[in-house]
Amino acid sequence: MSQMATGQTSTAGLPGLRTAREAKLLTQIELAERSGVNRSTISDLEVGSRNAQFRTIRHLASALDVSPQDLVATPARRAVRADRSGRRSS
Q1: CA 10 to CA 53: how far, in whole Å?
Q2: Contacts for 36-43: CB closer than 8 Å, 24+ residues apart
Q3: Coil, strand or helix: which one is 9?
Q4: Collapsing DSSP states into helix, strand and coil, what is residue 12?
Q5: Which residue in 16, 17, 11 sits closest to 53, CA to CA?
Q6: Quick check: pTM over 0.90?
Q7: What is the rounded CA–CA span in Å between residue 79 and residue 90?
Q8: Which of 8, 35, 42, 43 has a Cα at 20 to 30 A from 26?
Q9: Which pLDDT score is estimated for 75?
Q10: Which domains does the chain have, with CATH numbers?
Q11: Rg (CA), the chain
């Protein structure tokens, strides 16, 4: 069984978290309240100093109304996904 399926550590930091949070005009505190994830955990994930568990990624993605892949993907990978879906990348 994969680490993602068991809810174990999946990735270091979340490259897309800050971008998604700021796009929704949320502070870390507001995102913490919406997602149930501790504000210090959100901060650590944004700077890449903490590993993210899959369930944490799901809670954050749900609170931000984005896919978990949007939080995990680097900006370059998000641009490639957007190009493939027919949307323009920035």
Answers
A1: 6
A2: 37/63, 42/17
A3: strand
A4: strand
A5: 11
A6: no
A7: 7
A8: 8
A9: 62
A10: 7-84 (1.10.260.40)
A11: 13
